[in-house]
Amino acid sequence: MLDTEKNLLFLHYRAYYFSMTEPLPHWYLLGAGNMGTLAAWYLTRAGHTVSVVTNSPRLPLQKQLIFANQRMSLTLPCVSPAELPPAIKHVLVASKTPYTDSALQRVKGHLNNETQVLRFQNGVGALDGRLPSGSVMLEAITTSAVKGQSPQHTIVAENVTWIGGTAQPPEWFEGLQIHWPNLHWEADIRLVQWRKLVANAVINPLTAFYDIPNGALMNDPALLDQARTLCSEADALLAILDSQWPGDSFTAVLEVIRDTADNTSSMRADYQRGATTEIEAINGWLLCQAKNQGMDLPSHRRLVEALTSTP
Ligand SMILES: NC(=O)C1=CN([C@@H]2O[C@H](COP(=O)(O)OP(=O)(O)OC[C@H]3O[C@@H](n4cnc5c(N)ncnc54)[C@H](OP(=O)(O)O)[C@@H]3O)[C@@H](O)[C@H]2O)C=CC1
Ligand SMILES: CC(C)(CO)C(=O)C(=O)O
């Protein structure tokens, strides 16, 4: 037997043992959009159960997930806030960041210091100060991509996903890893999160403002210069926040631009349709941290001003 097969068998055995001793989580999902549906798919494959918390009780959601080689159906039951149990143990937050507060309102009063909250969002800090003290915050970062309009979700790219935020993974993590391709545990999730944050803070607002696909940033020396400046401002701040920050964001961002050259960034898509973008949780978070350090990030500030000013 190969080592990888032995490892998989071991993981299956551990997951089975755990499911016999501890019930698998029931997740209350806030935001059954693209990412929420993909996460719900893998959680249910691993034997967890998932309900969507909606303000108006509805029939179960009948979701379609379109993978590269197959089309799958997923039924997600809905519950209204009034139907929630007094205490919720597992919450998955996958709403777009500007709607986090209204999403959390639905579970208000049901979270406590035993609740595990898994945040599946871009940007940083959307839940800061919004959870009861003692609740466990886990962060998920992914380079996978899902597009579409509910109930149809097309999995455009299945890449790497990291979950982390506590010293040890929760007991259910190993079982989930068997079913979720390329899922990794990262105890200190910040560096992974900040790498993604910087890519989003550079690519998203530039492509939204200039109304171009990601790859077009490579074709214009002036735009590349802007990207370089945004990266070095972010690196200067992040190095102060954490001496372990490896810097060199420009190289990492160029790689993401190349890998997603044909993409319309999520911010460009939101901006084009006049929707509120996630810029506050991305560049806004960097600006807020910079302010706390007595720093300015002029390129990020100007982009936020340009994209949030009313025309
Ligand atoms: N899609 C992707 O490929 C990736 C997404 N992400 C991140 O994951 C998070 C979720 O993204 P994604 O699933 O694509 O988002 P969606 O556009 O699918 O929306 C997710 C949920 O956000 C809420 N929402 C969205 N628009 C509105 C609106 N105009 N008014 C009120 N609520 C709204 C809805 O919640 P409800 O159903 O509760 O009303 C919706 O189901 C974001 O932070 C995104 O940046 C990260 C990596 C990749
Ligand atoms: C990585 C990138 C920039 C891909 O388009 C993205 O995450 C987004 O569009 O929000």
TrEMBL record:
Enzyme Commission code: 1.1.1.169
UniProt keyword Oxidoreductase, yes or no: yes
Coiled-coil features, chain-numbered ranges: none
Ketopantoate reductase N-terminal domain mapped to chain residues: 28-163
Keywords recorded for this protein, A-Z: NADP, Oxidoreductase, Pantothenate biosynthesis
Single GO biological process annotation from the record: pantothenate biosynthetic process
Designated name of the protein: 2-dehydropantoate 2-reductase
Lineage: Bacteria, Pseudomonadati, Pseudomonadota, Gammaproteobacteria, Oceanospirillales
